[in-house]
Amino acid sequence: MKMNTVAGFTFGVVLILVSFPACYAQLKKGFYADKCEINVEETVQRIVFERIQKDSTLVAALVRMQFHDCFVEGCDASLLLNGTSTEKTAGPNGSVRGYELIDEIKTELEQKCPDKVSCADIIVMATRDTITLSKGSRYEVETGRRDGSKSSASDAIANLPSPSISVFDAIEVFKAKGLNAADMVLLLGGHTIGKASCGNFESRLYNSPPDKSMDRSLAGKLKMICPKETEGSNAGQADLDQNSASTNIVDNSFYQQIRMNKGLLSIDQKIAFDLLTAELVKTLSNDNVQFLTRFGAAMVKLGAVGVKVGNEGEIRKDCRFVNNLATASPSKTTTPSTTPTTTPSTTPSTTPSTTPLTSGMLP
Question: Which residue numbers delimit the Plant heme peroxidase family profile domain (predicted)?
C-alpha cells in the first residue's frame, strides 16, 4: 500500500456508518461489552490514532496484514506467530509490518482485561480504525475470534495469490475463501493506498514484448524508478494509486487510474477491462460513496474467513507465541524472530518503515 508521507496525512473521517447483520459463525458486534470493564474498541482506536500520527504508512500495512492473515488458516492471527518456518517467514509476507502496533494494543488490553481479547480481533479492529482515519467509512466489526496455533510458511505460499494472476483464477481463489468476484474487486480497492516494489511490476516494463496495456507515460516514469540494470533488486517502489492527490486517502481513485491504464500490478490492470469485472470497476470509479460503503462490507466478509470461535483455538497472552511458549509479558521485538524469543525489548518502534510490498496480490 502506498501511505508513506506523514506530513500530508489527513485525519478527516467520512462518517458513514456501515452496518451488517451478525451472521458470521459466532462472531457478533460488541462481543467484549460484558467481558471487560474497559471499552475494548475505544482502547484500540486510541492507540491506533496515536501510532498513525507518528507513522501514516501503518494504514496500508494493517490492511495488508488482515488480508494476509485471513487468507491463510483463516482470520486467526497465525501470521503474527514467530518461528523458523511460520507464515511471517514466507516470501509473500516478507514486507508485512505493523506487528509492533498489535503488540502495543495487546499489552494494554492484557493489563486491563487479561485473557479475554484475541490477537485476531485486534488485527480486525485496528485495521478498521486505520481505514477510518484515512477518510474511509467507519464500518462496524464483529468480534469473538480465537487465535490459532498453526502457522506455516508453505501454507502462506500456497494460499496468497500472485500479483500476476489472471482475473478468472483470482475469482476462483477468492471463491475458495467464501468471497465472490465483487469482493475481490472491492478488496483490490485497498490499493488506493500503499506502494509496490519494482519486483512486482518490472516484468511489465522489460518483458519482450513489454505490456502494452500500461500507459506509456507511466511506463516511462516507472523505468526511471526501476531501471533495467537494477532489475530483480527490488530497490525502488511506486504508488499503487497513481493519483498523487489521493496518496493518503482511502477513496475510489484507484479505479479511475486503472481505467486509464495506470495500474501498477498486472491483476490491477486486468480487472479494469476483463468482462468479469469491468462493469463493477466502472461503477466504483464513478461513485466514491458506493465504494466506501461496499469496501467496508468486503472487509467485514474478509474478517469472517475461516474464523475460530467458541472453544476453538485460544486467547494468546502474547501475539507472537502460542500460550505454552508465551513469555510473562508481550514481546515487542520489531522484526520476525527465527526462533522463539523470551526476552522482549522495552518499547515498540515508532519509526516508519520503508520496506516495500514484495509480493502478494493484496493489498
Answer: 26-323
Q: What is the pTM of this model?
A: 0.84
Cell of 358: 514484495
Q: Quick check: bond before 352 cis, omega within 30?
A: no
Dig out the grid coordinates for 300 from the structure.
467485514
For residue 268, pLDDT over 70 is answered with yes
Q: Residues annotated as binding site?
A: 69, 72, 74, 76, 78, 87, 161, 191-192, 241, 251
**Confidence class for position 43, pLDDT limits 50, 70, 90:** very high
| Widest distance between CA atoms in the chain | 62
As given in the structure block, the three cell numbers for residue 25 are 459463525
- The residue annotated as part of the active site, out of 68, 106, 146, 308, is 68
**Per-residue confidence (pLDDT) for residue 362, from 0 to 100:** 59
**Is residue 297 predicted with pLDDT exceeding 60?**
yes
Listed residue (81, 174, 184, 180) closest to 123, CA to CA: 81
Pick the CATH number of 40-194+240-304 from 2.60.120.10, 1.25.40.10, 3.40.50.300, 1.10.520.10: 1.10.520.10
| Alpha-carbon gap, residue 104 to 239, rounded angstroms | 28
Q: In this structure, what DSSP letter does residue 285 have? A: H
What is the structure's pLDDT at 131? Answer: 96
Q: Which whole-number Å values give the CA distances from 62 to 198, 215, 356, in the listed order? A: 21, 30, 14
Contact 123, 319 (CB under 8 A): no
Phi-psi region for residue 354, left (φ > 0), alpha (ψ -120 to 50) or beta?
alpha
Q: How confident is the model at residue 335 (pLDDT cuts 50, 70, 90)?
A: very low
Percent of the chain with pLDDT over 90: 75
134 is an active site residue: no
Domain boundaries, the chain: 40-194+240-304
- DSSP reduced 3-state for 84: coil
Pair 140, 297: CB distance under 8 Å: no
